[in-house]
Amino acid sequence: MEFQSEYSVIRCDSSEETYFFEKRDHGLINPLNDIPLFADAEQGILNMIVEIPRETNAKLELRTGDPLAQVIQDKKKGKKRYVHDVFPYKGYIWNYGCFPQTWENPSEVHMETGALGDGDPLDVCEIGSTIAHIGQVHQVKVLGVLGMIDEGEMDWKVLVIRVGDPLAEQVNDVEDLKRMVPGLLHATFSWFRTYKIPDGKPENLFAFRETVQPAHYAMEIVKECHDSWRKVMDGKISSKKVNPVNTTLKNEYSISTEQATKIMKEAMAACADSGIRRSESIHDDQCVPLPDFLAEENRHKRMIGVKHFCMELQRRFPHGSNDLSLLLTEIGVAFKCIRSFLRDMSNADFPALVEFANAQMHASLAASGLCCMVYSTQYMTNMPLESGSDGKYIVVYNPLVGSQGGTMGTIFSVYSRKSNAGDSGDSLDLLSRTGYEQVAAGYCFYASYTSFVLSMGYGTHIFILDAVSGHFVVSNQHVKIPETGPVYSLNCAHLRHMKEAVRQYVEECDEAGANHDIIKYYRYEDNDVANFHRVLTQGGILMKPGPQGNDLAHFLGVAAPLAFLARQAGGRASVGKRQVLELNSWSLEMSVPMFVGSPVDVGRVEELIIGQEDKQDELLVNPETHFRLELED
Question: What is the pTM of this model?
């Protein structure tokens, strides 16, 4: 459940970056006072104001003592404040902000900790997978709370997750966090304990023996702070740190939107160069997050990198060589370069990101000396190699899939050459190649973590980019897709144009989810890598059934490599009547329908499709012999 935000920000472009808030169809507001605490009180869903996006360092906060409580960068002794990086993390490791209509009372002692409040709104750490933007108002649910004591003052840190996050349905309390995001709580305590040490301050302390209190306790803290804010608004308590001015509450402190506009213009006039830009979100410091929450869990285990793992795997087989291992290692280096660029140039246009990813993949593969041909599906062309390149492999890659602001991925597949050694490869080396002829395939998934998933024809394996060493290390060997799973993924925008069998399968999934007979839920991103990765790890099905070109899977760049990975993980990939890997690439631009994932789910779609087609067209496939058998009368 995700709510459409009514709120946006107005940014004052100057050396003093300032963000004022406005409400749709109303005008300017004071975010602390005018944004309600609860988005849905019955469901326990709260509003959170994002002050600091994850992976950024600028110390931004609501200036709650001002009439419009604008977001501005905090200063100390005339200098802008930044938090230091806490090794191995970059900036804040969550989306950081506060709850509106809350206030930690500095004159009231908390009974269980004996500390006074710090006089600020209640701080919030949003742990979801999406990087937020300055001034966004997220709808969140509470998971727990840390009792941090900062220089003798109580400074609560509430852990929440955005209700639209993919993990939101599975995470409801602290115990769920330990299971679903291992290492997060350790990283959170470590970060808050040490982040002020570079400024010459001591470590922060924590109440409750450094344990996170559960969700129901956190909600009690939220309600206490909400009551303290109410006392300020009712005039029972006076505080210089909370200005009761508002434009929506219709009380003695209310002002008109015209008065609020005048206040904003006066503040802007104080800026040296005041340019105003409106947007629903500001993301000047947005970047791909670094934290590796698995580091603590795996710190006593031996780390195995891509090169070591692949070489050991090849040694198990007669006549194995290290060439393929070296090639996959080079591809891994390209992935790390792309990931770094996505992090550092997050504001670049998506075409620029694609261009860099394509250039980086091309450069790494060309420099390896192991390829006779490199084909980019993004530009549908052979990438140039040095004259006389006569490596034994052909690599097909899709440099970057996804969308700006969301997750992204890179897909690749490797074939052995058909042409004579000593000659450069050409398009004939790819034409008429079946998916079974791949010798390796994989992808890199750029999200809140970075995964390198690959197969060399002997299982599918997941590597995670370790934040400390900077290497891809083994996370899961021989991944197995569950026989059936909860996820079904397709672009429902074109559902009415799809085959009746596909619509029927979607209806079955919807009914199963509604009746709770079988857990089925819909997940879809504009990113084939993200959709497949979810199916690979959780089970279910990814469907690209057509009939539109954008709803089909490019055979060489998407369908063949994902089908190869699924089969090696015990899953299946079908075009509805035949296995994807049985097809051959009659054209470099060929696209096909694709149903990939858990065997039971893919089989059910095949049953629905074949049942609505003429039985004479049905084919049985023996994957061991690649031999097609016609049905007997």
Answer: 0.52
